[in-house]
Design brief:
Elements lengths: L1 E6 L2 E3 L5 E9 L1 E12 L6 E6 L5 E3 L7 E6 L4 E6 L8 E11 L4 E5 L3 E5 L2
Parallel strand pairs: 2-11
Antiparallel strand pairs: 1-3, 3-8, 4-5, 4-9, 5-6, 7-8, 9-10, 9-11
């Protein structure tokens, strides 16, 4: 089994910054894509940013130019640097990791979620 554990959420003022981290652990053979999603109250979960094994990235239009996704393959960790935060960025942020386990085939794991609140 592969687990994903997030950290780094919290309360920040508008215009501030936060950095989220998500570490995957378990019987990992290879990680393909790693991504961040968010879900605000009363809304559906949406993709925030995605990074492939080759380093290609994709961002939601609402965060382009403000958020940066990166990964450390040696640590099986994905990061989300969030700058110029706005109140509308308030949500629970989830990481998603997919790939292949050593013996059990493919996996698609979600983190438990971390709250990000942008408020003055």
């Amino acid at each position: 089994q592969v687990q994903a554990v997030e950290s780094g959420g919290g309360l920040v003022q508008p215009g501030g910054s936060l950095r989220l981290s998500c570490a995957a652990s378990g019987s990992i053979f290879r990680i393909y894509a790693m991504g961040w999603y968010r879900q605000a109250p009363g809304k559906q979960r949406e993709l925030v940013a995605l990074i492939t094994s080759g380093g290609s990235t994709n961002y939601a239009d609402s965060v382009k130019g403000r958020f940066t996704i990166s990964r450390d393959n040696a640590k099986n960790t994905v990061y989300l640097q969030m700058n110029s935060l706005k109140p509308e960025d308030t949500a629970v942020y989830y990481c998603n990791v997919n790939g292949r386990e050593v013996t059990a085939g493919t996996f698609n794991s979600w983190g438990q979620g971390t709250q990000v609140t942008v408020s003055s």
